[in-house]
């Protein structure tokens, strides 16, 4: 029963936690923590059979659940995973679980916080599992409102501004997506049933598209509509301005989820929706996407270098790192594509670590000004050690996951867009520069008098970081397990886009 | 088909029952000691009328009293909406301190029932005279209700404003109707439709007549540029009446708008009322295009004006203007999917908008304020109430999986199906704008510094301050929340109902 409906269990189990939490009195904080841990642990445990049971050799969707939801409009409850979504589901499960621990320090309205957090997890899981476009959209939107409250209530000083900016930006993107979804719906027919359909798998079949949808301009406009929706989420260059605000103001765990999972929803959407449904447009806009990737990489890295706020620096580095994903997927080669999806996973883990690490130091020093630290390595050696793993991962040190992903992206992109790849590669150098400079500013030099009493990282904080560090190292040393999961799917996707 | 007189009388049982209830309320008001007891017969009458109407739903289609009123699924659908709205508003009025303190109950409830009766007749009118009379019945009852708080200057002012605007609007409308009569020689909608198709009538004159008639309907649904009355009237009227005006007469306006335009000024393509029904407008009179522009204007003006509001009643007034704009887009589609979307939206809008007004009323009852500032920290003090407000506001914005979202999907889907893309884009962008001011309320309730003490009333001090909802308030809140969420997750039954309701042609 659980295995048959594995994806539903993974997706909706956190809601069980929500209901339990709503019935607990707000003063029983410990009980709320325990319930939240259980509600996120179960999806994580259930993602293990998902990883084991997933047949990576098969190109099709697996663990499929298929029933009607709203028959009048042929809307289905259609869930399934392939090699693209499995890593994302696992990433969401593990980050959500660890972030619950990172949220124990939340000191007000714990009941609301954890309830919203669990709703957020359901939304994210749903996005990665939904195969019906309407269902996908519903989950996509469900992610928004918990995020608004999580940033807006528990965030930093400018939280109100950051929260509404995030909400308006992403809603703007998603309503455009809604129109594209409706346009696709009314202009396509499922060859099997003769009805309009929201079924993504059917829509990927170009034979389902009606005459209007064969028109080049129409396809381009629809592609742009989807692109804006997804690009705001990634975020791609001109749409990125919500991100630094949201990341800086959000509480630590929420920054982790934002950078670790929400940004991936954007690139996931491009790969899941835009590429297979409008493949000719993916080819047509390939150069454009590569250029945007390049801009993201270089611009993000340069802006990071100029930051004085630790958290803002990491926020901009996320923009830079998501650029690799765009570059890798734009070139439509096996290496590039694998590199892109691996980078999605690896960046989720590494950047999650980075935000958790900022949270650790912020909880102690109560500021994030990079120039205000110095010499912390002698005071907090363990913290310095684990930070170095994350930092080295972020700058792409061989032996850690970031290197494999970026190397694959560059290998895949080099033969297609040489100049763009070469310019993008300078991003690696700039990244190394700001990462090392940041490390130096925080950990080396003389220790300020007021930080002589700074306590070392606690066991709970280590517990949130170590699993992620292990993942970074394992993938860096031996990436084959995760590459195996996704390579068949991505290869098939390339064949769909570039037959 | 024209039934015998006896049958025709049987077919307007719900209206007769409402009329009887009006009399009963007046008489009972004279007899009982506590005049507030008149809600008993009022509720009973409404419930019975709704029950009978529901049983008529799948009945034969008739035109009654020599083509005056129709008995068909469309009118049945709207009548059930009205009965439900009136029923809920009676309960609102029972829970409202404002109403229980400063109105005379028997007049108040009799007027409310009178307005309901007018709306029922309006939704089923087939004749211009009938439309005018029932519209006036609704309007006059609404003026009285608006001004029913005699002690309050604000209420009287609103009533006066409302009646002045209303008088002008209905004057222009009846002028348009007389032009129409002059040009076609008939008052019957179906006959006008046939005449307009056959005889060549000068389109300029016809356009003028149509626009004049639309002034009257536009006033009822608060369509821009005939929306000016709404914010002032909504602000001045007692809260339950504000809630009533925002759903009841508005829905009635849409009912008569649909019937008028789709009977007299549009011709069905295929067999009437067929599942994939399509209409085309009379040659030379491109009213869908005009109405599309007005819809775009209505939602944009409503949403932009709402941003600047700090009084919740005014904010919701502008929001309900914008919502009328969304509903109008379904009317311009000239397709059954568009009309189905309007009906669906009318129904879900009833629940979500009444819900939002309920929260405003509860806050007014306990804290004596309608200002945004009064909502500060509500999310912490009264989590249930604030969560309810959040859900209603998200539903009005169109965030899934709530019913308002599905309503908007139907509306914009109908537009895309009819390839009116620009209006769909304007519509969704307006949803984004609307989020901004709805989120302003959320910001007050949740985001702003919660240590600020509750203003004025409210039990307890500082951190502990809270307010205790009465049983009736809680019950209403739960019921409206449940319906708002239910029709988002499981819209199928309501969709089947709306699709059946389109079967409105009296042949």
Mean pLDDT across every amino acid position of chain B: 87
Q: What's the SSE pattern of chain A?
A: HHEEHHHHHHHHHHHHHHHHHHH
Q: Strand order across the biggest sheet of chain B? A: 1-2
Sheet having the most strands of chain B: 2 strands, antiparallel
Count of domain modules of chain A: 2
Low-pLDDT sequence parts of chain B: none
The fraction of residues in strands of chain A falls at under 5%
User: How many helical stretches of chain A?
Assistant: 21
Rg of Cα set of chain B: 22 Å
Number of helices of chain B: 21
- Termini distance of chain B? 7 Å
Approximate helicity band of chain A = over 70%
Which strand order spans the largest sheet of chain A, edge to edge or round the barrel? 1-2
Q: Helix- and strand-based class of chain A?
A: mainly alpha
Greatest chain-chain contact: A-B, 32 and 34 residues
Uncertain segments of chain A of ≥5 residues (pLDDT<50)? none
Cα end-to-end separation of chain A: 39 Å
Overall form of chain B: globular
Q: Fraction of residues of chain B in helices?
A: over 70%
By DSSP, the count of extended strands of chain B is 4
Structure description:
- The complex is a heterodimer of chains A (about 500) and B (about 500).
- Chain A has 21 helices and two strands.
- Chain A has about 500 residues and is mostly helical.
- Chain A has two domains: about 1-285, no CATH class; about 305-500, no CATH class.
- Chain A has a two-stranded antiparallel sheet.
- The two termini of chain A are about 40 Å apart.
- The mean pLDDT of chain A is about 90.
- With about 500 residues, chain B is mostly helical.
- Chain B has a domain at about 270-505.
- Chain B contains 21 helices and four strands.
- Chain B has helices spanning about 5-10, 15-30, 40-55, 75-95, 95-100, 105-125, 130-145, 155-185, 190-200, 205-220, 230-235, 240-265, 285-305, 310-330, 335-365, 380, 385-395, 405-415, 420-445, 470-490, 490-500, and strands spanning about 60-65, 70, 265-270, 280.
- In chain B, the strands form two sheets. Chain B has a two-stranded antiparallel sheet with strand order 1-2. Chain B has a two-stranded antiparallel ribbon with strand order 3-4.
- The longest helix of chain B has about 30 residues, at about 155-185.
- Chain B is globular and about 70 Å long.
- The mean pLDDT of chain B is about 85.
């Amino acid at each position: 029963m659980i295995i048959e409906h594995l994806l539903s269990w993974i997706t909706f189990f956190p809601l069980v936690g929500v209901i339990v939490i709503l019935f607990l009195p707000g003063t029983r904080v410990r009980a709320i923590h325990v319930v939240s841990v259980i509600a996120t642990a179960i999806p994580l445990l259930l993602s293990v059979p998902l990883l084991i049971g997933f047949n990576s050799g098969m190109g099709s969707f697996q663990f499929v659940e298929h029933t009607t939801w709203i028959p009048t409009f042929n809307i289905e409850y259609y869930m399934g995973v392939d090699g693209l979504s499995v890593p994302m589901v696992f990433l969401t499960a593990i980050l959500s679980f660890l972030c619950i621990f990172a949220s124990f320090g939340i000191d007000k309205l714990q009941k609301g916080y954890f309830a919203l957090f669990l709703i957020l997890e359901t939304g994210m899981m749903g996005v990665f599992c939904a195969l019906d476009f309407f269902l996908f959209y519903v989950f996509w939107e469900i992610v928004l409102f918990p995020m608004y409250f999580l940033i807006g209530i528990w965030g930093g000083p400018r939280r109100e501004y950051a929260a509404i900016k995030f909400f308006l930006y992403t809603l703007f993107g998603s309503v455009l997506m809604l129109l594209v979804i409706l346009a696709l719906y009314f202009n396509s027919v499922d060859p099997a049933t003769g009805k309009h359909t929201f079924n993504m798998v059917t829509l990927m079949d170009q034979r389902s598209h009606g005459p209007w949808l064969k028109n080049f301009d129409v396809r381009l406009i629809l592609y742009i509509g989807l692109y804006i929706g997804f690009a705001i989420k990634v975020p791609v260059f001109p749409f990125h301005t919500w991100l630094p605000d949201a990341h800086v103001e959000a509480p630590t765990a929420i920054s982790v989820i934002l950078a670790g999972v929400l940004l991936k929803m954007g690139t996931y959407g491009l790969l899941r929706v835009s590429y297979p449904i409008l493949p000719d447009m993916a080819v047509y806009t390939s150069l454009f996407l590569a250029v945007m990737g390049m801009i993201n990489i270089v611009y993000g890295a340069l802006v990071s270098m100029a930051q004085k706020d630790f958290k803002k620096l990491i926020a901009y580095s996320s923009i830079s790192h998501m650029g690799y994903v765009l570059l890798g997927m734009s070139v439509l080669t096996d290496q590039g594509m694998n590199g892109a999806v691996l980078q999605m996973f690896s960046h989720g883990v590494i950047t999650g670590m980075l935000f958790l690490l900022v949270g650790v130091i912020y909880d102690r020093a109560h500021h994030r000004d990079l120039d205000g630290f110095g010499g912390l390595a002698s005071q907090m050696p363990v913290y310095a050690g684990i930070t170095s793993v994350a930092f080295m991962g972020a700058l792409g040190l061989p032996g850690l996951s970031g290197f494999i992903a970026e190397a694959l992206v560059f290998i895949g992109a080099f033969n297609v867009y040489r100049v763009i790849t070469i310019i993008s590669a300078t991003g690696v150098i700039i990244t190394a520069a700001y990462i090392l400079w940041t490390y130096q500013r925080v950990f080396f030099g003389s220790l300020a008098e007021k930080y002589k009493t700074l306590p070392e990282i606690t066991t709970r904080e280590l517990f949130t970081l170590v699993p992620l560090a292990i993942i970074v190292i394992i993938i860096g040393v031996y990436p084959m397990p995760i590459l195996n999961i996704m390579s068949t799917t991505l290869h098939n996707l390339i064949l769909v886009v570039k037959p | 088909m024209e039934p015998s007189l006896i049958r025709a009388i049987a077919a307007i049982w719900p209206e007769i029952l409402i009329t009887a209830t009006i009399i009963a309320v007046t008489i009972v008001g004279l007899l009982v000691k506590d005049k507030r007891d008149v809600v008993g017969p009022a509720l009973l009458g409404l419930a019975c009328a709704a029950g009978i109407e529901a049983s008529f739903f799948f009945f034969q289609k008739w035109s009654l009293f020599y083509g005056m009123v129709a008995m068909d699924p469309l009118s049945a659908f709207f009548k059930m909406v009205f009965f439900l709205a009136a029923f809920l508003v009676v309960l609102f009025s029972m829970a409202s301190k404002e109403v229980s303190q400063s109105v005379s109950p028997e007049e108040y409830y009799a007027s409310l029932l009178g307005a309901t009766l007018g709306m029922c007749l309006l939704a089923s009118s087939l004749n211009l005279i009938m439309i005018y009379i029932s519209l006036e019945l609704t309007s006059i009852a609404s003026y009285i209700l608006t001004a029913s708080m005699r002690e309050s200057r604000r209420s009287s002012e609103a009533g006066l404003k409302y009646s002045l605007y209303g008088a002008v609007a209905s004057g222009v409308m009846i002028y348009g109707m007389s032009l129409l009569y002059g040009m076609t020689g008939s008052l019957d909608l179906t006959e006008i439709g046939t005449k307009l198709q056959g005889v060549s009538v000068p389109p300029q004159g016809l356009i003028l007549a149509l626009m004049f008639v639309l002034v009257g309907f536009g006033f009822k649904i608060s369509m821009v540029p005939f929306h000016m009355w709404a914010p002032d009237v909504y602000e001045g009227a007692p809260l339950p009446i504000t809630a009533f005006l925002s759903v009841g007469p508005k829905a009635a306006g849409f009912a008569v708008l649909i019937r008028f335009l789709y009977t007299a000024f549009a011709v069905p393509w295929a067999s009437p009322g067929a599942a994939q029904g399509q209409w085309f407008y009379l040659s030379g009179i491109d009213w869908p295009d005009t109405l599309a522009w007005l819809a775009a204007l209505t939602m944009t003006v409503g949403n932009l004006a709402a941003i600047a509001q700090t009084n919740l009643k005014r904010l919701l007034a502008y929001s309900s203007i914008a919502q009328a704009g969304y509903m109008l887009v379904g009317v311009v589609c000239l397709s059954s999917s568009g009309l189905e979307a309007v009906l669906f939206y009318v129904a879900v809008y009833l629940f979500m908008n009444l819900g939002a007004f309920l929260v405003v009323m509860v806050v007014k009852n306990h804290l004596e304020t309608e200002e945004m500032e009064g909502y500060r920290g509500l999310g912490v003090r009264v989590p249930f109430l604030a969560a309810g407000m959040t859900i209603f506001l998200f539903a009005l914005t169109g965030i899934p999986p709530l019913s308002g979202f599905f309503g908007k999907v139907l509306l914009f889907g109908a537009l895309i199906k009819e390839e009116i893309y620009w209006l769909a884009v304007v519509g969704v962008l307006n949803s984004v704008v609307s989020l901004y001011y709805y989120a302003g309320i959320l910001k007050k309730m949740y985001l702003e510094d919660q240590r600020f003490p509750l203003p004025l009333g409210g039990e307890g001090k500082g951190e502990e301050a809270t307010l205790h909802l009465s049983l009736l308030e809680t019950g209403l809140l739960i019921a409206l929340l449940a319906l708002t969420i239910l029709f988002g997750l499981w819209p199928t039954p309501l969709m089947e109902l709306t699709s059946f309701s389109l079967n409105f042609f009296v042949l």
